């Protein structure tokens, strides 16, 4: 599970559905990403999108991901 991702989403005041819409993916697919079942190795498109939506630098996301894995 990507607890850091859930925490960043909640800090931004966004629901899974809202992030899914912003990323142009379904809420269920985003949920699978947050739970660590999809995108086990985040691609650059996802990294960039999350960075923009959450207001978190890509480098910070990469660091948080490396701590998760």
Give a quick precis of the structure.
With 69 residues, the chain is mainly alpha-helical. Helix content is 68%, strand content 0%.
Could you characterize what this model shows?
With 69 residues, the protein is mainly alpha-helical. It is 68% helix and 0% strand. The chain has five helices and no strands. The protein has helices spanning 3-11, 16-23, 27-34, 44-54, 58-68. The longest helix has 11 residues, at 44-54. The mean pLDDT is 95.
What order do the helices and strands come in, and which of them pair?
Blueprint: H1 3-11, H2 16-23, H3 27-34, H4 44-54, H5 58-68
Features:
69 residues; mainly alpha; globular
Which class of secondary structure composition applies to the elements?
mainly alpha
The average pLDDT score comes to 95
How much is the radius of gyration in Å?
11 Å
Helix residue percentage: 55-70%
Low-confidence stretches: none
């Amino acid at each position: 599970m990507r607890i850091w991702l859930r925490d960043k989403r909640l800090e931004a005041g966004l629901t899974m559905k809202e992030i899914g819409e912003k990323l142009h993916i379904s809420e269920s697919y985003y949920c699978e990403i947050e739970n660590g079942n999809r995108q086990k190795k985040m691609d650059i498109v996802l990294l960039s999108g999350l960075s923009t939506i959450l207001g978190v630098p890509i480098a910070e996301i990469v660091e948080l991901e490396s701590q998760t894995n």
